[in-house]
Amino acid sequence: MELKDYQKQVIADLDEFCNRIADNEPPVAYREFWESRGVTLSANDDNLCPYNNDLQGIPRVTIKVPTAGGKTFIACNAVRSIFNHYDEGIPKIVAWFVPSDTILEQTYKNLSNPKHPYRQKLDVLFGSKVQISNKQQLLQGQGFNPQTINHYLTICVFSIQSFATRSKDGRLVYRENGALISFEEDLKKAGVNFSEGEHPSLVDVMKFLRPIVIIDESHRFTSELSKDFFELLNPRFILNLTATPRKKANIISFVSALKLKQNNMVKLPVVVYNLQEKNDVIASTINFRNLLEEHAKKSQEMGGEYIRPIALFQAESKTSEEKETFDKVKKMLVDCGIPESQIKIKTANINELKGVDLKSEECQVRYIITVNALKEGWDCPFAYILASLANKTSNIDVEQILGRILRQPYTRKHKSILLNQSYVYSCSSNFQATLESIVKGLNGAGFSDKDYRVAELENTEPKKTTVEQRETLDFTSTTIVNPTTVSTGAINVSTPATEYIDDSVDTSYVSKQTSSNSTIDSIKYQIRQAEAAAQKAEQQQKDDLFSNPTGVAEEVKEKQKLNMTKIQEKHLARAKKISLPQFFINTPNNGFFIDEDSHKLLDKTDLYVNFNLDEQDKKLDLINIGNNNIAAFDITEENDYMLKRIDINSQQTMLIQQTYAMYGRELKIEQFAKQIGKSIRLDAISEPKITNYAKAVLANYNDEELQMLFDNQQNVMAAFSKKIKSLLIHHSEKKFKDFLTTGKITIEPSYKFAEEIILEKKESSLQRTLYTSEHGDMNPLEKKVAVYISQLPNVAFWHRNLERGKGFCINGFINHYPDFIVLTEKGNIVIVETKGDDRTNTDSKAKLSLGTKWADKAGSQYHYFMVFENNEIEGSKSITEFINLLKQM
Fold it and tell me: What's residue 586's pLDDT?
């Protein structure tokens, strides 16, 4: 199972935030994270307000994902992503919190199962070195010791109750525990005070290890996971996942409902039928479920997947005889001709689903009787229908379990449109309250009132609703109608609402309705209504995509509008004609026509071909590179291989140094080389290749020097990073020039100016700007050059290019995003890169080389300048020289 595109974006958002906290405190990193997306945080906004720093020094963020969006799978990938930003040597331990024992059992089972996609992904990400533990196993020290922690990812699955001091079981984690004595020496060396007794407790060990904390459905945790608790647990990072974040949740990623619809994750819309009598609810549910199964079988015959639609019968029991009342419902269904093997009961006290694999083709279950027991820890994509058996005058509460019928089987669109949506049946005399409950259920699952449709049944009259009701509920996409009068079952509408089910249900009537031809027309009409709902939903999705093509969450989109800027009307026609050249590459096509080449925008990785690190020079002076304390760091290709530093505390430093000092020479080289290999992550070079290269370099140093290098590992690894980067760029530049010569790389018109862009900071005071405002985040040199450009009468317009991934890129052996794009009245297009006098380095030389080559190949109207304030490198210009030349162009 692989990440969907929207899930990849979530992980990318998390990665970016982790990159930012490497250099800044969480509040600053959070503000800059959202500013880069054109969002200004506001104290008056519940979702996008300034960072809540109640846990100082501990990053704590939230990802908002609607129900069925794959929160657990995202979390599995997020674990790897978070650990990537810390030193390879830290304990890879995760405290994974879930809101109930039911979900704990399910999560532990799935993460432990080698055949489950969650575990398979973790095995891939962590080299099959994964251990899943529950609280009981941890308290017994079962597979939980320093050796395991150092070599395996250990995920500890806890529930809300796991650390509850008010319960006897919860207090066990705070008591000294002889089963954890293997950690005792390390804790004592680190100066950890035990919470009680002479031996460490589980809490003491967790505090020392500093776990990554994952909180599933975080909105359901309140006082249980308080500030005091987290200070006791001392986590390294906290990640919340929920469909409905609380206020001040530090949200770094929003997944919109539109993204789930696009990726076929959910059965939407929810089609709502409000019938006249309870008899009709039962009969229609049975009939419609049978119809869905017929469609599922035909779909499977045509190559589709196996689906056995399931209906959930729900009501609110207010009697003490729960077992008797549910058995009565079961007997009623049996009397209606449903085989007993197809019916199961699932309540708080009765669980006939235990051990049943509802997705198996051998399973017979088609009906489940419940109240609200399915509201958590139960997900079955085969559940299509929610039928409320509450009496006409009862309040119908489907809010808690509506999410159980939303998941789409196999996350794909099925041939029958009826299998792509879900259904609710009721017979409430207060239909407005039913709709309100449905909207609450959709909101709680991360969706909106756009995601359901009311079926307009025959022989109905418009329901009279007050202006106040319409304004309050704003059901803009529905038509609310009275219950149908098609059938006349023998329901006694005066039956007290306190009873769950009674003898007023006429099973003979229901049996007749499910076996005779008298209901064929009624069911056909329901089908037509369902199909109409599907068509409306499809059009709604098209409209949503048209107005929001990127699928940005509404919470973000509304904030971004404040920072949106457009091309000035007077420049629009001219700007639309511009298509800036970029490099393209012809690569062998692996398709049917083997003689044809594919033609695509050049990516720098296309130039890594035949690069072999083993064959590169190993001249690297590691002795004279300065000295720093031990630190964890990260090097990422997304950040152009830049060093990311995260300090390790003194306790961990001491333990790392003591352990390394005890190694023999060969083991020192091997361990240090492995650490270097794991820390430098490049798509072009495998970890073993980097490790072997590091071994070869380290072998040139004696034992005393090796210890010195290890103590200075931050700078040593930075030196390896710089060296490998320079070797890769040198190789890529040579390939780039060779491919240009042979014609494998060409240059063609490609990049177009967007009519609207989002700016985190705006600059509106300068003249001749392409957009109504330009990017205002300029350093003093950039601002000086911008002012000079804006004052030249021969400049038609200029644009401050956007940063990495958003603006124009000169794509060659490096990705170069220049600072300015200028159009002169003569039609010359001038690309400008400014450099401070302290930046006369190899990076500047590489950019100048690429920019010059781009202008040479692009054509006579294209020009490239690298501008320094004073100092220059060969081929660059001073500000004065540049402005004098620009005046004449």
Answer: 87
Verify that 78 and 98 share a domain, yes or no. Answer: no
Distance (Å, whole) CA 273 – CA 426 = 6
Distance CA 389, CA 779 (A): 67
Q: Which of 233, 224, 247 is nearest to 99 (CA)?
A: 224
- 366 versus 482: the higher-pLDDT residue is 366
Q: Which of 792, 794, 809 is nearest to 854 (CA)?
A: 809
Same domain, 347 and 485: yes
Q: What is the CATH number of the domain that holds 805?
A: 3.40.1350
Burial of 568 (0-12, 13-18, 19+ CB in 10 A): middle
CB atoms within 10 A of CB 660: 19
In terms of domains, do 227 and 81 share one? no
Dig out the tokens for 700 from the structure: 């040139």
Which residue, 694, 729, 764, sits at the end of a domain? 729
Co-location of 477 and 369 in the same domain: yes
User: Quick one: which H or E segment has residue 523?
Assistant: helix 520-547
> Apex CA 54: angle with CA 52 and CA 56, to 5°?
105
Residue 684 lies in a domain: yes
In this predicted model, what pLDDT tens digit does every residue of 735-777 receive, in sequence order? 999 999 999 999 999 999 988 887 767 777 889 999 998 987 8
> Does the structure show a pLDDT above 70 at 526?
no
Q: Do 711 and 659 have their domain in common?
A: yes
Average pLDDT over residues 564-583: 93
Q: Please give the pLDDT value at position 324.
A: 60
Task: Give the CA angle between residues 712, 208, 195 to the nearest 5°.
Answer: 145
Highest mean pLDDT among 90-104, 188-202, 536-550: 90-104
Percent pLDDT > 90 in the chain is 30
Predicted pLDDT at 214: 94
Check whether residue 96 and residue 177 sit in a common domain: yes
- The answer to whether 208 and 189 have CB atoms below 8 angstroms apart is no
Mean per-residue pLDDT over the chain, rounded: 78
- Per-residue confidence (pLDDT) for residue 484, from 0 to 100: 32
Measured between alpha carbons, how far is residue 504 from residues 55, 251, 286, 288, 543 in Å?
58, 51, 18, 23, 46
With 0.70 as the threshold, say if the pTM is over it.
Answer: no
Do residue 355 and residue 479 come from a single domain? Answer: yes
Please report the pLDDT score of residue 795 as a whole number: 96
580 occurs within a structural domain: no
The reply to whether 315 falls in a domain is yes
DSSP-derived letter for residue 762 is E
Buried/exposed 203-216: b ≥16 CB within 10 Å, e otherwise: bbbbbbbbbbbbbb
CA 634 to chain CA mean position, Å: 21
- H or E element: which one contains 840? none
Q: Is the distance from CB of 51 to CB of 26 less than 8 angstroms?
A: yes
Do 229 and 153 belong together in one domain?
yes
> Between the CA atoms of 744, 748, 751 and 752, what dihedral angle is there, to the nearest 10 degrees?
-160
Q: Which domain holds residue 349?
A: 264-547
DSSP-derived letter for residue 191 is T
Work out the angle between the directed axes of helices 101-112 and 117-125 (0-180°, nearest 10). Answer: 60
In order, the DSSP letters of 236-290 are: SEEEEEESSPPTT--EEEE--HHHHHHTT-B--SEEEEE-SSHHHHHHHHHHHHH
Do 523 and 288 contact (CB within 8 A), yes or no?
yes
The per-residue pLDDT for 75 is 95
pLDDT in tens, 64-74: 988 888 899 99
Quote the distance between the C-alpha of residue 436 and its chain's center.
Answer: 29
Mean pLDDT of 625-654: 44
Tell me which of 849 and 595 has the higher pLDDT: 849
Give the up-direction half-sphere exposure of residue 323: CA atoms within 13 A in the CB hemisphere: 4
- Does 735 fall in a domain? no
- Between CA 563 and CA 345 the distance in angstroms is 54
- pLDDT at position 593 over 50: no
Concatenated DSSP letters for 452-472?
A: EEE---SS--BPP--HHHHHH
